[in-house]
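User: Hi! I'm working on a homework problem where we have to compare a predicted structure to a textbook description. Could you give me the structure for the chain below?
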Amino acid sequence: MTKHLLTISDLTKAEIEAVFEKTKVFKERQKRGIPHRPLLGKTLALIFEKASTRTRVSFKVAMYQLGGNVIFISQRDSQIGRGEPIKDTARVLSRYVDGIVIRTFGHEIVEEFAHYSSVPVINGLTDLHHPCQVLTDVFTIVEKKGSCKGLKVAWIGDGNNMANSWIEAA
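Assistant: Happy to help. Predicted structure tokens:
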């Protein structure tokens, strides 16, 4: 069964810790100028119906640094907004790429896309969740403090996608 990242709850604590350990290794190699290309020959599709700077650049740079390629599909490039069923887009793209990141409005779109995709789907942001941003924030805390154990996080602001993902991370 294909593993997707739609919410933080899709990962166990052990899986998150394993991702963080790999991230530390990749960052150290990058810092030392040691090439590490585990994604050589792999392609990631970015489907963004919402504007983005940090998320788009982060995924593009990461794929480049790890040896992979990126195809960017904006809202105007996608047929989803023009009536093509999500299941058709998911099935077709799955034949061409090795992973898909979706940044869209409705969380149900990401869920449906993942249901029909035969490759991993990552939620790049929906109105309900933003798991990649919160995982990045938690990694930064671990990197700077050594651990999240005993950490208390206060949320001030709207109860939005970030708040939902932080609650899940707790």
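For your comparison, note the following. The domain at 8-169 is CATH 3.40.50.1370 (Rossmann fold). The mean pLDDT is 93. Good luck with the assignment!
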